[in-house]
Amino acid sequence: MELTRRSIIEPFKIKMVEPLHLHSLEAREKFLKDAGYNLFLVPSQGVTFDFLTDSGTTAMSANQWGAMMVADESYAGSRSFQKFEAAVGEVTGYNYVIPTHQGRAAERLLFGLLVKPGDQVPSNNHFDTTRANIEQIGAQAVDLVIPEGRDPKSRHPFKGNIDLELLEEFCKKHRARIPIGMLTITNNTGGGQPVSFENIRGAAAIYRKYNIPFILDACRFAENAAFIRNRERGMSERSIRSIAREVFDTADGCMMSAKKDGMVNIGGFIALKKQDWVTDLRNNLILTEGFPTYGGLAARDLEALAVGLFEALNEDYLEYRLAVAKYMGDGLTDLGIPIVQPPGGHAVYIDAKAFLPHIPPSQFPGQALVVELYRREGVRSCEIGSVMFGRTESEKFVPAAMELVRLAFPRRVYTQSHFDYLLEGFELLAKEKQKCRGLQMTYSPPFLRHFTAQFKPANRRAVERKWVACAPEKSN
Predict the structure, then answer these.
(1) Residue ranges per structural domain of the chain
(2) Weakest mean pLDDT among 4-8, 385-389, 411-415
(3) Span 327-374, pLDDT tens digits
Protein backbone atom coordinates (compact mmCIF):
# COMPACT_ATOMS: atom_id res chain seq x y z
CA MET A 1 0.00 0.00 0.00
CA GLU A 2 1.43 3.37 -1.06
CA LEU A 3 1.72 5.90 1.75
CA THR A 4 0.20 9.35 1.28
CA ARG A 5 2.91 11.90 0.66
CA ARG A 6 3.02 14.38 3.56
CA SER A 7 5.92 16.64 2.58
CA ILE A 8 7.59 17.64 -0.66
CA ILE A 9 11.30 17.05 -0.24
CA GLU A 10 14.20 18.39 -2.26
CA PRO A 11 14.34 15.86 -5.15
CA PHE A 12 18.14 15.73 -5.12
CA LYS A 13 21.00 14.94 -2.78
CA ILE A 14 23.86 17.33 -2.09
CA LYS A 15 27.26 16.36 -3.49
CA MET A 16 29.20 19.57 -2.90
CA VAL A 17 28.76 22.33 -0.34
CA GLU A 18 29.73 25.98 -0.15
CA PRO A 19 30.01 27.89 3.15
CA LEU A 20 27.53 30.64 3.99
CA HIS A 21 29.02 34.03 4.83
CA LEU A 22 27.98 35.02 8.34
CA HIS A 23 28.50 38.63 9.44
CA SER A 24 27.70 40.80 12.42
CA LEU A 25 25.07 43.54 12.26
CA GLU A 26 27.85 46.14 12.35
CA ALA A 27 29.63 44.54 9.39
CA ARG A 28 26.44 44.45 7.33
CA GLU A 29 25.75 48.10 8.10
CA LYS A 30 29.21 48.97 6.78
CA PHE A 31 28.62 46.95 3.62
CA LEU A 32 25.36 48.87 3.11
CA LYS A 33 26.95 52.28 3.55
CA ASP A 34 29.86 51.44 1.25
CA ALA A 35 27.40 50.24 -1.41
CA GLY A 36 25.24 53.36 -1.28
CA TYR A 37 22.39 51.26 0.15
CA ASN A 38 22.08 49.36 -3.14
CA LEU A 39 22.27 45.59 -2.69
CA PHE A 40 23.48 45.12 -6.26
CA LEU A 41 26.68 46.83 -5.14
CA VAL A 42 27.28 44.67 -2.05
CA PRO A 43 29.97 42.02 -2.73
CA SER A 44 28.80 38.42 -2.53
CA GLN A 45 31.04 37.72 0.46
CA GLY A 46 28.91 40.20 2.39
CA VAL A 47 25.69 38.25 1.72
CA THR A 48 24.36 35.26 3.69
CA PHE A 49 21.18 34.44 1.71
CA ASP A 50 21.26 35.63 -1.88
CA PHE A 51 17.72 36.05 -3.20
CA LEU A 52 18.59 38.95 -5.50
CA THR A 53 17.73 36.86 -8.56
CA ASP A 54 17.14 33.34 -9.77
CA SER A 55 19.04 34.20 -12.96
CA GLY A 56 22.30 32.31 -13.36
CA THR A 57 22.35 31.23 -9.70
CA THR A 58 21.34 27.59 -10.28
CA ALA A 59 23.25 24.70 -8.73
CA MET A 60 24.00 22.55 -11.75
CA SER A 61 23.58 18.78 -11.71
CA ALA A 62 26.15 16.00 -11.97
CA ASN A 63 24.86 15.28 -15.48
CA GLN A 64 25.44 18.88 -16.50
CA TRP A 65 28.98 18.93 -15.09
CA GLY A 66 29.68 15.63 -16.82
CA ALA A 67 28.46 17.01 -20.15
CA MET A 68 30.78 19.99 -19.78
CA MET A 69 33.78 17.67 -19.68
CA VAL A 70 33.18 16.44 -23.24
CA ALA A 71 32.58 19.88 -24.77
CA ASP A 72 33.99 20.60 -28.21
CA GLU A 73 35.49 24.10 -28.01
CA SER A 74 35.96 24.46 -31.77
CA TYR A 75 35.36 28.04 -32.90
CA ALA A 76 33.07 26.98 -35.75
CA GLY A 77 30.84 23.95 -36.25
CA SER A 78 31.19 22.62 -32.70
CA ARG A 79 29.42 19.34 -31.99
CA SER A 80 28.40 20.92 -28.66
CA PHE A 81 26.38 23.48 -30.65
CA GLN A 82 24.74 20.64 -32.52
CA LYS A 83 23.64 19.08 -29.21
CA PHE A 84 22.36 22.43 -27.96
CA GLU A 85 20.52 23.16 -31.22
CA ALA A 86 18.87 19.74 -31.15
CA ALA A 87 17.80 20.16 -27.52
CA VAL A 88 16.22 23.58 -28.14
CA GLY A 89 14.50 22.21 -31.23
CA GLU A 90 13.11 19.23 -29.33
CA VAL A 91 11.76 21.36 -26.46
CA THR A 92 10.36 24.23 -28.55
CA GLY A 93 9.72 22.72 -31.98
CA TYR A 94 11.45 25.69 -33.61
CA ASN A 95 13.71 25.20 -36.62
CA TYR A 96 16.28 27.97 -36.19
CA VAL A 97 18.33 28.51 -33.03
CA ILE A 98 20.66 31.46 -32.38
CA PRO A 99 22.73 31.24 -29.18
CA THR A 100 23.54 34.35 -27.12
CA HIS A 101 25.46 34.86 -23.93
CA GLN A 102 22.28 35.77 -22.02
CA GLY A 103 18.71 36.99 -22.45
CA ARG A 104 19.35 40.69 -22.84
CA ALA A 105 21.70 39.97 -25.72
CA ALA A 106 18.84 38.11 -27.42
CA GLU A 107 16.58 41.11 -26.75
CA ARG A 108 19.12 43.55 -28.17
CA LEU A 109 19.61 41.48 -31.32
CA LEU A 110 15.91 40.96 -32.03
CA PHE A 111 14.74 44.47 -31.14
CA GLY A 112 17.72 46.02 -32.93
CA LEU A 113 16.65 44.29 -36.12
CA LEU A 114 12.86 44.70 -35.93
CA VAL A 115 12.03 47.72 -33.76
CA LYS A 116 12.48 51.35 -34.84
CA PRO A 117 11.83 54.71 -33.15
CA GLY A 118 8.14 55.38 -32.65
CA ASP A 119 7.17 51.69 -32.63
CA GLN A 120 5.09 50.13 -29.86
CA VAL A 121 5.56 46.59 -28.51
CA PRO A 122 2.64 45.14 -26.51
CA SER A 123 2.99 42.44 -23.85
CA ASN A 124 1.45 41.46 -20.52
CA ASN A 125 4.39 43.08 -18.71
CA HIS A 126 7.88 43.82 -19.94
CA PHE A 127 10.63 43.20 -17.43
CA ASP A 128 13.40 45.75 -16.86
CA THR A 129 15.96 44.72 -19.49
CA THR A 130 13.26 44.05 -22.08
CA ARG A 131 11.75 47.49 -21.53
CA ALA A 132 15.17 49.17 -21.58
CA ASN A 133 16.20 47.48 -24.83
CA ILE A 134 12.97 48.69 -26.46
CA GLU A 135 13.02 52.19 -25.03
CA GLN A 136 16.67 52.92 -25.78
CA ILE A 137 15.75 52.53 -29.47
CA GLY A 138 13.09 55.22 -29.04
CA ALA A 139 10.13 52.81 -29.09
CA GLN A 140 7.53 52.16 -26.38
CA ALA A 141 7.04 48.99 -24.31
CA VAL A 142 3.29 48.72 -23.64
CA ASP A 143 1.97 46.69 -20.68
CA LEU A 144 -1.53 45.22 -21.06
CA VAL A 145 -1.76 42.81 -18.11
CA ILE A 146 -5.25 42.03 -16.77
CA PRO A 147 -6.53 44.23 -13.88
CA GLU A 148 -6.06 41.37 -11.38
CA GLY A 149 -2.36 41.38 -12.28
CA ARG A 150 -2.08 44.87 -10.79
CA ASP A 151 -3.81 43.89 -7.54
CA PRO A 152 -1.45 42.17 -5.07
CA LYS A 153 -4.38 40.79 -3.05
CA SER A 154 -6.20 39.15 -5.96
CA ARG A 155 -5.97 35.34 -6.00
CA HIS A 156 -6.73 34.97 -9.69
CA PRO A 157 -4.92 31.77 -10.73
CA PHE A 158 -3.43 33.35 -13.87
CA LYS A 159 -2.60 36.93 -12.94
CA GLY A 160 0.03 37.04 -15.67
CA ASN A 161 -2.63 36.97 -18.41
CA ILE A 162 -2.70 39.72 -21.01
CA ASP A 163 -5.99 41.61 -21.30
CA LEU A 164 -7.29 40.27 -24.60
CA GLU A 165 -9.86 43.04 -25.08
CA LEU A 166 -7.21 45.72 -24.60
CA LEU A 167 -4.83 43.82 -26.87
CA GLU A 168 -7.45 43.64 -29.63
CA GLU A 169 -8.14 47.38 -29.34
CA PHE A 170 -4.45 48.21 -29.22
CA CYS A 171 -3.56 46.14 -32.28
CA LYS A 172 -6.49 47.55 -34.24
CA LYS A 173 -5.54 51.13 -33.42
CA HIS A 174 -1.74 50.92 -33.70
CA ARG A 175 -1.11 48.09 -36.17
CA ALA A 176 1.22 50.14 -38.39
CA ARG A 177 3.52 50.80 -35.42
CA ILE A 178 3.65 47.25 -33.97
CA PRO A 179 6.64 45.27 -35.31
CA ILE A 180 6.12 42.31 -32.95
CA GLY A 181 3.80 41.26 -30.14
CA MET A 182 5.05 39.62 -26.98
CA LEU A 183 4.00 37.64 -23.91
CA THR A 184 6.18 36.93 -20.87
CA ILE A 185 5.82 33.49 -19.22
CA THR A 186 5.76 33.59 -16.24
CA ASN A 187 5.10 37.29 -15.72
CA ASN A 188 8.09 38.32 -13.60
CA THR A 189 7.23 41.99 -13.14
CA GLY A 190 3.76 41.15 -11.82
CA GLY A 191 4.90 38.71 -9.17
CA GLY A 192 6.10 35.65 -11.09
CA GLN A 193 2.50 34.97 -12.06
CA PRO A 194 1.59 32.41 -14.75
CA VAL A 195 -0.23 32.89 -18.04
CA SER A 196 -2.96 30.39 -18.91
CA PHE A 197 -2.83 28.32 -22.08
CA GLU A 198 -6.24 29.70 -23.03
CA ASN A 199 -4.87 33.24 -22.73
CA ILE A 200 -1.74 32.39 -24.73
CA ARG A 201 -3.90 30.98 -27.53
CA GLY A 202 -6.12 34.06 -27.38
CA ALA A 203 -3.16 36.41 -27.71
CA ALA A 204 -1.75 34.32 -30.57
CA ALA A 205 -5.06 34.53 -32.42
CA ILE A 206 -5.15 38.33 -32.11
CA TYR A 207 -1.57 38.69 -33.29
CA ARG A 208 -2.31 36.41 -36.26
CA LYS A 209 -5.45 38.40 -37.11
CA TYR A 210 -3.36 41.55 -37.48
CA ASN A 211 -0.37 39.76 -39.04
CA ILE A 212 1.89 40.64 -36.10
CA PRO A 213 4.75 38.19 -35.36
CA PHE A 214 4.29 36.66 -31.89
CA ILE A 215 7.39 36.24 -29.71
CA LEU A 216 7.43 34.60 -26.27
CA ASP A 217 9.74 35.77 -23.52
CA ALA A 218 10.15 32.19 -22.33
CA CYS A 219 12.80 32.27 -19.62
CA ARG A 220 10.47 30.52 -17.13
CA PHE A 221 8.54 28.39 -19.62
CA ALA A 222 8.74 25.22 -17.52
CA GLU A 223 7.34 26.85 -14.39
CA ASN A 224 4.54 28.37 -16.46
CA ALA A 225 3.71 24.96 -17.96
CA ALA A 226 3.58 23.46 -14.45
CA PHE A 227 1.10 26.12 -13.34
CA ILE A 228 -1.03 25.42 -16.41
CA ARG A 229 -1.21 21.74 -15.50
CA ASN A 230 -1.94 22.49 -11.85
CA ARG A 231 -4.54 25.21 -12.31
CA GLU A 232 -6.12 25.10 -15.76
CA ARG A 233 -9.20 23.01 -16.46
CA GLY A 234 -8.56 19.99 -18.67
CA MET A 235 -4.78 20.05 -18.22
CA SER A 236 -4.22 17.91 -15.11
CA GLU A 237 -3.57 14.69 -17.05
CA ARG A 238 -1.14 16.26 -19.49
CA SER A 239 2.63 16.00 -19.14
CA ILE A 240 4.34 19.30 -18.42
CA ARG A 241 6.66 18.74 -21.35
CA SER A 242 3.74 18.36 -23.77
CA ILE A 243 2.10 21.51 -22.41
CA ALA A 244 5.31 23.48 -22.86
CA ARG A 245 5.66 22.26 -26.44
CA GLU A 246 2.09 23.26 -27.28
CA VAL A 247 2.68 26.71 -25.79
CA PHE A 248 5.68 27.16 -28.07
CA ASP A 249 3.57 25.98 -31.02
CA THR A 250 1.27 29.01 -30.62
CA ALA A 251 4.09 31.51 -31.26
CA ASP A 252 6.44 32.39 -34.12
CA GLY A 253 9.47 32.23 -31.90
CA CYS A 254 10.92 32.98 -28.50
CA MET A 255 13.69 34.73 -26.68
CA MET A 256 15.11 33.13 -23.60
CA SER A 257 17.45 33.89 -20.79
CA ALA A 258 18.55 30.32 -20.19
CA LYS A 259 19.90 31.40 -16.81
CA LYS A 260 16.40 30.64 -15.46
CA ASP A 261 14.65 27.51 -16.77
CA GLY A 262 17.72 26.50 -18.73
CA MET A 263 19.26 25.59 -15.34
CA VAL A 264 22.65 27.12 -16.18
CA ASN A 265 24.83 29.95 -14.94
CA ILE A 266 25.13 31.72 -18.29
CA GLY A 267 23.43 31.54 -21.68
CA GLY A 268 20.44 32.44 -23.78
CA PHE A 269 19.02 32.13 -27.27
CA ILE A 270 16.56 33.21 -29.93
CA ALA A 271 14.56 30.39 -31.54
CA LEU A 272 12.30 30.86 -34.56
CA LYS A 273 9.91 28.84 -36.70
CA LYS A 274 10.73 30.59 -39.97
CA GLN A 275 13.93 31.72 -41.63
CA ASP A 276 12.81 35.30 -42.42
CA TRP A 277 15.03 37.09 -39.87
CA VAL A 278 17.67 34.42 -39.34
CA THR A 279 20.35 35.61 -41.79
CA ASP A 280 20.29 39.18 -40.50
CA LEU A 281 20.25 38.04 -36.87
CA ARG A 282 23.25 35.78 -37.42
CA ASN A 283 25.15 38.53 -39.22
CA ASN A 284 24.51 40.92 -36.34
CA LEU A 285 25.41 38.18 -33.87
CA ILE A 286 28.84 37.87 -35.49
CA LEU A 287 29.40 41.60 -34.99
CA THR A 288 28.80 41.59 -31.26
CA GLU A 289 28.44 38.10 -29.75
CA GLY A 290 30.50 35.66 -31.78
CA PHE A 291 30.17 33.05 -34.50
CA PRO A 292 26.64 31.56 -34.83
CA THR A 293 27.73 28.20 -33.44
CA TYR A 294 28.77 29.61 -30.09
CA GLY A 295 27.16 33.06 -29.79
CA GLY A 296 29.34 34.39 -26.99
CA LEU A 297 29.31 31.14 -24.99
CA ALA A 298 31.92 28.50 -24.34
CA ALA A 299 30.94 25.10 -25.72
CA ARG A 300 30.83 23.74 -22.17
CA ASP A 301 27.99 26.18 -21.47
CA LEU A 302 26.10 24.92 -24.52
CA GLU A 303 26.55 21.35 -23.26
CA ALA A 304 25.22 22.24 -19.80
CA LEU A 305 22.24 24.02 -21.33
CA ALA A 306 21.41 21.08 -23.61
CA VAL A 307 21.02 18.97 -20.46
CA GLY A 308 19.43 21.69 -18.30
CA LEU A 309 16.46 22.37 -20.61
CA PHE A 310 15.20 18.86 -19.97
CA GLU A 311 16.01 18.89 -16.25
CA ALA A 312 13.85 22.02 -15.92
CA LEU A 313 10.90 19.99 -17.25
CA ASN A 314 11.33 17.17 -14.73
CA GLU A 315 8.00 16.91 -12.92
CA ASP A 316 9.40 15.99 -9.49
CA TYR A 317 11.70 19.00 -9.69
CA LEU A 318 8.87 21.34 -10.72
CA GLU A 319 6.62 20.09 -7.92
CA TYR A 320 9.40 20.92 -5.46
CA ARG A 321 10.20 24.23 -7.17
CA LEU A 322 6.66 25.59 -6.91
CA ALA A 323 6.35 24.23 -3.37
CA VAL A 324 9.33 26.33 -2.24
CA ALA A 325 7.62 29.58 -3.26
CA LYS A 326 4.32 28.46 -1.73
CA TYR A 327 6.03 27.48 1.54
CA MET A 328 7.65 30.88 1.90
CA GLY A 329 4.57 32.73 0.68
CA ASP A 330 2.30 30.94 3.15
CA GLY A 331 4.82 31.46 5.94
CA LEU A 332 5.01 35.21 5.35
CA THR A 333 1.23 35.46 5.08
CA ASP A 334 0.83 33.68 8.41
CA LEU A 335 3.11 36.34 9.93
CA GLY A 336 0.88 39.11 8.59
CA ILE A 337 3.38 40.17 5.92
CA PRO A 338 1.44 41.04 2.74
CA ILE A 339 2.65 39.40 -0.47
CA VAL A 340 1.49 39.21 -4.05
CA GLN A 341 -1.10 36.44 -3.96
CA PRO A 342 -0.99 33.64 -4.86
CA PRO A 343 2.77 32.96 -4.58
CA GLY A 344 4.51 32.75 -7.97
CA GLY A 345 6.84 30.10 -9.32
CA HIS A 346 10.36 31.41 -8.81
CA ALA A 347 9.92 34.01 -6.08
CA VAL A 348 7.78 35.58 -3.40
CA TYR A 349 6.97 39.26 -3.79
CA ILE A 350 6.37 41.27 -0.62
CA ASP A 351 3.96 44.19 -0.98
CA ALA A 352 6.15 46.89 0.55
CA LYS A 353 3.53 49.60 0.04
CA ALA A 354 1.09 47.71 2.25
CA PHE A 355 3.74 46.52 4.73
CA LEU A 356 5.39 49.93 5.23
CA PRO A 357 2.57 52.48 4.78
CA HIS A 358 4.51 55.03 6.84
CA ILE A 359 7.12 55.36 4.06
CA PRO A 360 5.89 57.50 1.14
CA PRO A 361 6.58 56.38 -2.46
CA SER A 362 9.07 59.24 -2.90
CA GLN A 363 11.21 57.55 -0.22
CA PHE A 364 11.10 54.16 -1.96
CA PRO A 365 9.44 51.77 0.50
CA GLY A 366 10.52 48.75 -1.55
CA GLN A 367 14.18 49.71 -1.44
CA ALA A 368 13.83 50.56 2.24
CA LEU A 369 12.60 47.03 2.91
CA VAL A 370 15.41 45.56 0.78
CA VAL A 371 17.92 47.44 2.95
CA GLU A 372 16.27 46.37 6.21
CA LEU A 373 16.15 42.69 5.21
CA TYR A 374 19.86 42.76 4.50
CA ARG A 375 20.70 44.71 7.63
CA ARG A 376 18.83 42.29 9.88
CA GLU A 377 19.25 38.90 8.19
CA GLY A 378 21.96 39.20 5.54
CA VAL A 379 19.32 38.63 2.84
CA ARG A 380 19.95 40.19 -0.55
CA SER A 381 16.65 40.79 -2.37
CA CYS A 382 15.47 42.97 -5.26
CA GLU A 383 13.19 46.01 -5.34
CA ILE A 384 10.55 45.99 -8.07
CA GLY A 385 8.90 49.32 -7.50
CA SER A 386 9.64 52.99 -7.95
CA VAL A 387 13.41 52.53 -8.11
CA MET A 388 12.98 50.15 -11.02
CA PHE A 389 9.90 51.61 -12.73
CA GLY A 390 9.27 55.07 -11.26
CA ARG A 391 9.81 58.01 -13.62
CA THR A 392 9.63 61.75 -13.93
CA GLU A 393 7.06 63.57 -16.02
CA SER A 394 7.22 67.37 -16.28
CA GLU A 395 9.72 67.31 -13.41
CA LYS A 396 7.23 65.49 -11.19
CA PHE A 397 7.91 62.13 -9.58
CA VAL A 398 5.52 59.41 -10.80
CA PRO A 399 5.76 56.29 -8.61
CA ALA A 400 5.38 52.74 -9.87
CA ALA A 401 1.95 51.15 -9.63
CA MET A 402 3.24 48.62 -7.09
CA GLU A 403 6.06 48.73 -4.56
CA LEU A 404 7.32 45.15 -4.39
CA VAL A 405 10.32 43.34 -2.96
CA ARG A 406 11.21 40.12 -4.75
CA LEU A 407 12.77 37.20 -2.92
CA ALA A 408 13.94 35.15 -5.91
CA PHE A 409 14.97 31.61 -5.04
CA PRO A 410 17.99 30.10 -6.80
CA ARG A 411 17.28 26.63 -8.17
CA ARG A 412 18.53 23.69 -6.08
CA VAL A 413 20.58 25.87 -3.71
CA TYR A 414 18.82 26.37 -0.35
CA THR A 415 17.05 23.86 1.89
CA GLN A 416 13.92 24.07 4.03
CA SER A 417 15.94 24.78 7.18
CA HIS A 418 17.29 27.93 5.54
CA PHE A 419 13.75 29.11 4.82
CA ASP A 420 12.57 28.25 8.35
CA TYR A 421 15.46 30.27 9.76
CA LEU A 422 14.49 33.27 7.65
CA LEU A 423 10.82 33.06 8.62
CA GLU A 424 11.93 33.40 12.25
CA GLY A 425 13.72 36.62 11.30
CA PHE A 426 10.70 37.90 9.38
CA GLU A 427 8.57 37.38 12.48
CA LEU A 428 10.71 39.87 14.41
CA LEU A 429 10.81 42.28 11.47
CA ALA A 430 7.00 42.29 11.29
CA LYS A 431 6.85 43.38 14.95
CA GLU A 432 9.39 46.18 14.45
CA LYS A 433 8.49 47.41 10.95
CA GLN A 434 7.88 50.98 12.16
CA LYS A 435 11.65 51.27 12.63
CA CYS A 436 12.20 51.01 8.85
CA ARG A 437 13.32 54.32 7.35
CA GLY A 438 12.79 55.64 3.85
CA LEU A 439 15.61 56.46 1.45
CA GLN A 440 16.68 59.39 -0.67
CA MET A 441 18.22 58.66 -4.08
CA THR A 442 21.60 60.35 -4.51
CA TYR A 443 22.52 58.95 -7.94
CA SER A 444 20.34 57.82 -10.84
CA PRO A 445 21.74 56.54 -14.18
CA PRO A 446 19.71 57.06 -17.38
CA PHE A 447 18.74 53.39 -17.90
CA LEU A 448 18.18 50.43 -15.58
CA ARG A 449 18.83 52.63 -12.58
CA HIS A 450 18.21 49.93 -9.97
CA PHE A 451 21.51 48.25 -10.88
CA THR A 452 23.72 51.20 -9.95
CA ALA A 453 21.57 53.85 -8.23
CA GLN A 454 22.77 55.01 -4.82
CA PHE A 455 20.86 56.15 -1.76
CA LYS A 456 21.13 57.50 1.74
CA PRO A 457 18.67 57.31 4.66
CA ALA A 458 15.99 59.96 4.31
CA ASN A 459 15.44 62.64 6.89
CA ARG A 460 12.46 61.57 8.95
CA ARG A 461 11.04 65.08 8.61
CA ALA A 462 11.66 65.24 4.85
CA VAL A 463 8.76 66.50 2.78
CA GLU A 464 7.72 65.38 -0.69
CA ARG A 465 10.08 66.93 -3.22
CA LYS A 466 10.88 66.89 -6.91
CA TRP A 467 12.80 63.76 -7.92
CA VAL A 468 15.47 64.15 -10.60
CA ALA A 469 18.45 62.24 -11.96
CA CYS A 470 21.67 63.25 -10.29
CA ALA A 471 25.39 62.50 -10.11
CA PRO A 472 26.87 59.84 -7.83
CA GLU A 473 27.62 60.85 -4.29
CA LYS A 474 30.97 59.75 -2.96
CA SER A 475 30.82 57.62 0.18
CA ASN A 476 33.06 58.41 3.12
Answers:
(1) 25-54+315-457, 62-311
(2) 4-8
(3) 999 999 999 999 999 998 899 999 999 999 999 999 999 999 999 999
Report yes or no: 39 and 377 within 8 Å, Cβ to Cβ.
no
Give the Cα separation of 401 and 285 in Å (integer).
36
CATH architecture of the region 62-311? 3-Layer(aba) Sandwich (3.40)
Confidence at residue 5, expressed as pLDDT on a 0 to 100 scale: 56
Position 202 pLDDT exceeds 70:
yes
- What's the distance, CA 417 to chain centroid? 25
> What would the mean pLDDT of 280-296 be, rounded to a whole number?
94
Are 369 and 350 in contact by the 8 Å Cβ rule? The answer is yes
For residue 197, which of 250, 145, 272 has the smallest C-alpha distance? 250
Looking at residue 121, the DSSP 8-state letter turns out to be: E
CATH of domain 25-54+315-457: 3.90.1150.10
pLDDT at 404: 92
Which helix (H) or strand (E) element contains residue 317? helix 315-334
Cα distance between residue 455 and residue 289, in whole Å: 34
- The per-residue pLDDT for 465 is 43
Phi, psi of 336 (to 5 degrees): 80, 15
Distance CA 356, CA 410 (A): 26
Contact of 361 with 390, CB cutoff 8 Å:
yes
Percentages helix, strand, coil for the chain, rounded to the nearest 5? 40, 15, 45
Prediction pTM value: 0.89
Q: Are 466 and 397 in contact (CB under 8 A)?
A: yes
**DSSP character at residue 69:** T
User: What's the pLDDT tens digit per position in 422-462?
Assistant: 999 999 999 999 999 999 989 888 878 888 999 999 876 54
**Residue 397 vs residue 438, higher pLDDT:** 438
- Contact status, residue 268 vs residue 55, Cβ threshold 8 Å: no
Q: Are the C-beta atoms of residues 460 and 437 closer than 8 Å to each other?
A: yes
Read off the pLDDT band of 470 (50, 70, 90).
very low
What's the rounded Cα separation, in Å, for the pair 64 and 306?
8
Q: Contacts by 425-429 with C-beta closer than 8 Å and gap 24+?
A: 425/376, 425/377, 425/379, 426/331, 426/332, 426/335, 426/337, 427/335, 428/376, 429/372, 429/373, 429/376, 429/377
Closest by Cα among 183, 175, 275, 278 to 221: 183
Q: Do the domains at 25-54+315-457 and 62-311 have one common CATH topology?
A: no
- Enumerate the H helices of 116-263 as residue ranges: 128-135, 164-174, 197-209, 221-231, 240-250
What is the average pLDDT score of the chain? 91
Residue 348 three-state SS: strand
